[in-house]
Design brief:
The structure is a single chain. The protein has 312 residues and is mainly α. The protein has a domain at 7-210 and 271-276. It is 60% helix and 4% strand. The protein contains 14 helices and four strands. The protein has helices at residues 11-35, 39-65, 73-84, 91-103, 118-122, 142-145, 150-155, 157-175, 179-202, 223-228, 235-240, 256-266, 278-300, 302-307; strands spanning 5-9, 70-71, 128-132, 270-271. The strands form two sheets. A two-stranded antiparallel ribbon has the order 1-3. Strands 2-4 form a two-stranded antiparallel sheet. Helix 3 (73-84) packs across helix 8 (157-175). The longest helix is centred in the N-terminal third of the chain and has 27 residues, at 39-65.
C-alpha cells in the first residue's frame, strides 16, 4: 500500500507548459508574417509529429509501460530517443506513473485521476512532483530499471530531449534551407501538439465517449480522439485489456500504432504481439451491457424509486 502522497509544486514543469505555447505561437506568427508557410515547414511538422507520437504510443506506452509485445534493440533505441523529444519525462518516470494510473484509476493514488477535475487530469497534475514518503517512486518498474537502455535514457533524458526535440527539426530545416522554419514548426509547434494530444488521453478519454468493454472505471472509447493520438482514443478497451498491443480492435478502427507494431513484426523487428482472446472480449462486452442495464433499472424501476422516496 502506498504511503500518503506528497505534492510539491514543480516550477520547471509549470514554466515549460506555460511559456512554451506562448513562444510557439508568437514565433510562428512572426515567421508566417515574414516568411509565409512553405510545404517543407508543414512536412517537417507532420513527419516529426508522427515519429515522436509513435515513439510515445508504441514505445513509452504499449512497449515499456505494458509490455504488450517485444522488439529489437534498434526499435527500442528509436523509442527512447524520439520518445524523449516529446518532453514528457524519461520512460522510467512515464511508465511508472502510467502503471500507477492503471492500478489506482479514479482513486487518489492515480497521478492524473479524472475525479480531481478535467484540468487536473489534462495537465494540472504535471505542475506537481508526485512521490511517496518512502521514496518508492519506481517500485512498480523493476523490470525497466534492469533494462540495458532505460537507465541510460533516464540519465541522459534532458540532452536527448533537447537534441531530438529541437536539434533534429533545426537540422532538417537547415537541410532544406529553412532552419528556423524547421525549429519553429518541427520543434515548438510540434511540441505543443504532442503535449496536448497526449494530455487529452488522460482527460478527454476519461470524460467523453462510450464504455462498451468495462464500466468499472471512467475510461471511454472516443473515435475522434484516436485520430489525433495514433489510436489511443479507444481507451475503454485499453483499460479493460491493457496488455493487448492493440487499442482499436476492429479493422476500421484508426490505430496507426497497432499497424506500425504489426508491420515491424513482418520484418522480424517485433514479436510476441499480445492479443486478448476473442471470447474474453465478448464476455467483457456482455458484462458491460449488463452493468449498464442494471444502472438504468436502478433509476427507472418504480419500486426502487419508491424505496428512495422519489416520484415514479
Amino acid at each position: 500500500m502506498l504511503d500518503k502522497i506528497k505534492r510539491r509544486f514543480n516550477w520547471t514543469n509549470a514554466s515549460v507548459l506555460t511559456l512554451l505555447p506562448i513562444a510557439a505561437f508568437l514565433s510562428v506568427s512572426f515567421y508566417i508574417y515574414y516568411q509565409g508557410i512553405h510545404w517543407m515547414d508543414v512536412g517537417i511538422l507532420v513527419s516529426l509529429y508522427t515519429l515522436i507520437g509513435l515513439a510515445v504510443t508504441g514505445g513509452y506506452h504499449r512497449y515499456y509501460a505494458h509490455r504488450a509485445y517485444d522488439c529489437h534493440p534498434i526499435v527500442q533505441l528509436f523509442f527512447l530517443t524520439f520518445g524523449a523529444a516529446a518532453l514528457e519525462n524519461s520512460v522510467l518516470c512515464w511508465a511508472s506513473d502510467h502503471r500507477r494510473h492503471h492500478r489506482y484509476v479514479d482513486h487518489d493514488e492515480d497521478p492524473y485521476s479524472i475525479t480531481k477535475g478535467f484540468f487536473w487530469a489534462h495537465m494540472g497534475w504535471v505542475f506537481f512532483d508526485h512521490h511517496t514518503s518512502n521514496d518508492a517512486r519506481f517500485e512498480n518498474a523493476h523490470d525497466l530499471k534492469k533494462d540495458k537502455l532505460v537507465p541510460w535514457q533516464h540519465k541522459y533524458y534532458l540532452p536527448l530531449a533537447v537534441l531530438f526535440g529541437f536539434g533534429v527539426p533545426f537540422l532538417l530545416g537547415w537541410a532544406v534551407g529553412r532552419p528556423w522554419g524547421g525549429l519553429i514548426w518541427g520543434g515548438l509547434i510540434r511540441q505543443f501538439l504532442t503535449h496536448h494530444t497526449t494530455f487529452l488521453i488522460n482527460s478527454a478519454a476519461h470524460w467523453f465517449g462510450k464504455r462498451p468493454y468495462s464500466r468499472q472505471n471512467t475510461a471511454r472509447d472516443s473515435w475522434w480522439l484516436a485520430i489525433f493520438s495514433f489510436g489511443e482514443g479507444f481507451h475503454n478497451f485499453h483499460h479493460a485489456f491493457p496488455s493487448d498491443y492493440r487499442n482499436g480492435i476492429r479493422w476500421y478502427h484508426w490505430d496507426p500504432t497497432k499497424w506500425a507494431i504489426r508491420s515491424l513484426s513482418w520484418i522480424k523487428l517485433s514479436w510476441d504481439l499480445r492479443k486478448t482472446p476473442k471470447q474474453s472480449i465478448i464476455q467483457s462486452i456482455e458484462r458491460a451491457k449488463s452493468a449498464a442495464q442494471s444502472a438504468i433499472d436502478r433509476y427507472t424501476d418504480p419500486l426502487q424509486l419508491q424505496q428512495r422516496g422519489e416520484k415514479t
